[in-house]
Amino acid sequence: MEKVLLTGNPNVGKSTIFSQLTGINTITSNYPGTTVSYTKGTMTAIKQPIGYKGVCDGNCGLDGLKHDYRRRKRQGRQKSCRTDNQFITYEVIDVPGAYRLDPTAEAEKIAASMVQDGDIIVNVIDATNLERNLFLALQLLEYKKPMIIALNMWDEAKHKGITIDIRELSNCLGVPVIATNGLSGEGTYALVSEVSNAKKPIDKNFSKNTWKEIGKIIARVQNLEHRHHTLSERIQDISIHPIFGPITAILSLYMIFKIVLYFGELLVGLMEKLFILLYSPLMYKISEWLSDSPFFHSLLVGNITLGGIEYESAMGALTTGVFMTIGIVLPYIFVFYIVLGLLEDIGYLPRIAIIFDKLMHRVGIHGYSIIPMFLALGCNVPGVMAIRNLESRRERFITAVIMCTTIPCMAQSAVMLHAVGANGPIYVFVVIAALISVWLLLGSILGYFVKGEKTALIMEIPPYRKPTMKVQLKRLGMRVVSFLKEAVPYVIIGIVIINIAIYTGVLDKIADLTAPIISKILGLPKEAIASFLIGIVRKDAAVVLLESFSLSPWKMVTAITALILYFPCLATFIILLKEIHFKDTMKAVLIMSTVTLITGFIMNILPEGDMTPYLFVVFSILFAVIVSGLLQKAKERKYKT
Amino acid sequence: MNLAKGKKLIPYIITEIPKDNLVNQKLLALGIYEGATISIKQFLPVKGPIIIIAGTGEVAISYEIAQHIHVKK
């Protein structure tokens, strides 16, 4: 099977075209670096002359053409599929975006190595930014492989007053050029048709000065019309304004927090009612069936009474395990992913990266690192995967460590808000203040001590784009399904293992062994080790388990802060091993454990009083700001000398 | 003159970009090369990134890098 590579600069719509060609859903968004690994799919095309205008009836097995078929059908131009068609199947690979083939970032290295193995190259070009995209196109032409240019975002270019002479561009480059629109599917049929007839490029003998060549091509093919600023461009300007930009960014982050909290709580209330109405009768039935075997009863159903099921404390795999993931965590995840999806599609995330670049410099990394951290607020796994776009080992290491230590995923945040918030909002702020302080202090210390290449921000800013409902719903569905697939089984297995450990007395032995750390350093009951053990699998499950120990509000805050800091969940740990390798992962684990013990110990020795949470919030942040400032000054002196 | 000292919305021609391979290659790929015409769109406060217009797109460059990009009117 021949390999078709979809290559191009980051954020030009490769994944959207990939979905059109193969029918496979991929996560797309409006910022560079969404695809960090390659995705494979297959596409069937008809081997026939390029000029053929026949359109399949949607049932002949040609993936990715159905939309084109529907569009033509609406226009009353549908034709039947030819019966003498000769089908040919291709393997289509969505390659991570790259600006050049002499790469620096890990994702670009993957792209460059893949180009060597491809049979046909489809270079997706952003029509609104032709000049910049031609740099990679000219590098790709040097491989002398059959190549087609997909001039994507064609409609957007027209709106911006950019006109491109496609025929002339094709003549200049010596390869076919097809205008496409990844979102509507326009041009997909023509692209498939060209792929099945792809030939080696006509030799054009470009000079070594690539930009000079690009300048000549642009002069021949592109025409720019002057037009006034649109509303979207005015909003873009505000979001990077020296005064309004930071204000907008802080307000946006606050709004995201409020929206997730408000709608999340609303949905949790709804889910609780649904569980009582629809799920409780089933649990009573199962409880009845298992009444003869107390072991399986406590394992699966836990403690339930006829007066009602306390889902959060029953501790059965089917009661607490299912309710916690679907009833508590899913609502928050659902709302967060809607908000994140909108931010991703609009193109606001890169602007947040620019606004916070200076702050990120304090911790020795640059603004782009905030994008993986933002993704980690949903789930740490995509966050860790996104560090692949960072250029140096030092940056990847610092980002991974501070992200995995201090940024709780939405599942964790949801149960944390639920458990700590019950004692009053100030306790939520205590956890947040502790995490911010550790983030700043740890980042500053790592920024000072970790050796390696220091890189600076050089980032393309995508234009604002209107989010489309289709893409939003598809991505939300994928993310929710992926969460359910990962969370429900792990939480159920985790609760079963802990129940078995309690039943067999193994947990008591582990608790005795770890008592000096848990009781003396963190000040928690030695049984709390169960939470830390289950937290290795799922941290949200660990927090729920903590609730069963009836801790005082301050002890609860200490325990939850320690739970967030001490170790990433198993899924994140595995990805961490893949991304920063064994040695750095072990260093990261060591740092996390040390940070947990120090933070937990400080919180443990503080006297429990009414003013303690308020004083902690103020002084922890103040201390972190002062120390990081001093380290910043020391760092500057170090670089000067 | 270095780019960090430039003024907003005035077209500049780049005369020199940093020689450091990593930065050089990245700037080059984003259309910031010697001879290219660019203009500054925005300066962010406290020596934050500088947003420039190169071709039909926008690029954010950190202040430290901008100090090493030389331009003329």
Question: How is this structure best described in words?
Answer:
Chain A has 641 residues and is α/β, with parallel strands linked by helices. Chain A has 26 helices and nine strands. Chain A is 62% helix and 8% strand. In chain A, α15 (370-376) runs antiparallel to α16 (380-386). Chain A is globular, with a radius of gyration of 28 Å. Chain A starts with a strand and ends with a helix. Residues 49-67 and 78-83 of chain A have low confidence and may be disordered. Chain B has 73 residues and is α+β, with helices and mostly antiparallel strands. Chain B has a single domain, classed as Roll (SH3 type barrels), CATH 2.30.30. Chain B is built from two helices and five strands; from the N terminus they run βαβββαβ. In chain B, a hairpin with a 6-residue loop joins β2 (37-43) and β3. The radius of gyration of chain B is 11 Å and the shape is globular. Classes of the chains: A alpha/beta (641), B alpha+beta (73). Chain A binds chain B through residues 99-100, 102, 104, 128-132, 135-136, 160, 162, 211, 224, 237, 240-243, 245-246, 350, 353-355, 357-358, 366-367, 391, 453, 455-461, 463, and chain B through 22-23, 25-31, 33, 35-36, 41-49, 51, 54-62, 64-65. β9 (458-461) of chain A pairs antiparallel with β4 of chain B.
Write the layout of secondary structure elements.
The complex is a heterodimer of chains A (641) and B (73).
Chain A: E1 2-8, H1 14-22, E2 39-46, H2 66-74, E3 87-94, H3 106-117, E4 120-126, H4 130-141, E5 147-152, H5 154-159, E6 162-164, H6 166-173, E7 177-179, H7 188-196, H8 210-221, E8 222-224, H9 231-239, H10 244-289, H11 294-300, H12 317-346, H13 349-355, H14 357-362, H15 370-376, H16 380-386, H17 393-406, H18 410-421, H19 425-449, E9 458-461, H20 469-504, H21 506-521, H22 529-537, H23 539-547, H24 553-566, H25 570-605, H26 612-640
Parallel strand pairs in A: 1-3, 1-4, 4-5, 5-7
Antiparallel strand pairs in A: 2-3, 6-8
Chain B: E1 11-16, H1 21-29, E2 37-43, E3 50-54, E4 57-61, H2 63-66, E5 70-72
Antiparallel strand pairs in B: 1-2, 1-5, 2-3, 3-4
